[in-house]
Every structure is written in C-alpha cells, then in structure tokens.
Design a protein that fits this description.
Elements lengths: L1 E2 L7 H13 L1 E2 L8 E2 L5 E2 L5 H7 L4 H7 L15 H17 L3 E4 L1 H9 L5 H18 L7 E4 L37 H19 L4 H8 L3 H10 L4
Parallel strand pairs: 1-4, 5-6
Antiparallel strand pairs: 2-3
Helix pairs in contact: 4-6, 6-7, 7-8, 8-9
Length: about 230
C-alpha cells in the first residue's frame, strides 16, 4: 500500500493509521466488526518528519513505525543531467499530443533547465515543458517543422539572474527583435490561442470548407463549429 504525502496527515488520521499498522485491522464505514488486513506499507513525503515530530505535528510512534528502512530520494535540483533525461520524456509526450514533427530544446534552454533550482520538482518540469510548447506554437511555429524551445518560453524565475548568454546565442538588441504575438497570461489562454490558429490555418488551406477542415483536424464537423463559436471565430 503506497501512502503519498504522509507528512500532511492530520493527527487524528495519524492515530487511525497507527492503530491499523499495530493491530493489522481496519473497520469499514458502517461495519460492525473489524477486518484483518495484511499489507506492506510504502510511505512518501517531501517533509522532514523528524522536524515535524519535534514540533508536535507528527506522532513519534507513527514515525518509527513507518521509517523502518528509509530511502532518501534527492530532489531534481541535485540530480544533475537527469533533468534533461526527464525533459526528453516530456518533450516526446507533448510532441505526440500536439501533433508536431519534432520538439526539442536549444542548447541555451538545456543550460537553463540545468541551472534552475526546481522547487516544484518533476511536476514543475512537466508543466514548464508543456507550457513552453504551447507558447511556442501560439507564436506561429509550424507543426511540420522542427520546433525548438528557447529559454524565454520556459518562464524560469532563475533566468532573471542568470549569466549572459554566450555570443552565439545572445539575444538581438531590442530594435532588431522580431515582432511576436504577446504570450497568453494563462495556460488556458495559450491552449485556446493554439486552437484558434489551427482552425484558421485549416480553413484557409481548405478555402473555408468546414467539413474538410474538420477532417484534417480530426474533429466532427458539428464539434468544430461549436469550438469555433466558443473561440470567437464565428
């Protein structure tokens, strides 16, 4: 039985869990008799349980019951180039989900990922890659080209204090920067912007023929009309 975020359990639930571990019994809601159970427990937390025990917010007896064989797992910021291996997995997931030919990180983006402190661990990395892919598409990237994610679409706080980029990847002066569509403020807006551009491109390609555009997008024609109305295209 895997118990995640065990450090977040309130004291009342901790007492019930301890009783189950000690007696090997549970009593279902509404049942008259307890029921024997035989399980091995694996518990996980990102909290320091010793500190919680000292503060009185985690039971010492439950802590000793659970910490028979602790297995420390280092956070993402301490795992070196593992961040790039994991990022590769999320890149492939987003490539398949968005129907892209190829999705990759630039050298500067890889350096930014390695230098970030990742307070949200792997979940944060997953969301950063997903958001960056959507933002890049919303700025006009073609699904049929090799889409490369640059540091500016990653939105990492660490970039604000990062060292200047090497000359080969240094940004252009402000006057020479290409005009880009402003990045949406939320992930939902980014998704809607991407959907809007995809629908418009399909309609242009098929000269306004909704059925053919729907077929290209993998949608039913009626659903495409509904989506277009919701996105303000009709």
């Amino acid at each position: 039985l895997f118990l995640d975020e065990v450090g977040e359990l309130p004291l009342s639930v901790q007492a019930k869990l301890l009783r189950t571990l000690q007696n090997g019994e549970i009593q279902r809601l509404g049942a008259d008799e307890p029921r024997r159970v035989n399980v091995r427990v694996v518990a996980a937390t990102n909290r320091h349980l010793r500190d919680l025990v000292a503060a009185g917010s985690f039971r010492a007896d439950l802590y000793h019951r659970l910490s028979v064989y602790p297995v420390p797992i280092p956070p993402l910021r301490e795992r070196g180039d593992d961040v790039l291996l994991l990022a590769g997995r999320f890149l492939e997931q987003n490539r398949a989900r968005l129907g892209l030919r190829s999705l990759r990180l630039s050298s500067a983006a890889q350096a930014a990922l390695r230098g970030y402190h990742w307070p949200g661990n792997i979940r944060e990395l997953e969301h950063v890659i997903s958001r960056a892919a959507l933002k890049t598409l919303s700025r006009g990237a073609s699904r049929h080209a090799i889409v490369t994610l640059e540091p500016e679409v990653l939105d990492l706080d660490a970039l604000q204090g990062a060292a200047p980029l090497p000359a080969a990847t240094a940004p252009l002066p402000p006057a020479a920067l290409p005009t880009a569509t402003p990045a949406p403020r939320t992930l939902r807006e980014a998704v809607e912007d991407c959907q809007r551009q995809s629908i418009q491109a399909a309609l242009e390609q098929h000269r306004g023929h909704w059925a053919n555009a729907a077929r290209q997008l993998g949608l039913d024609t009626s659903n495409l009309h509904k989506l277009a109305r919701r996105l303000g295209l009709k």
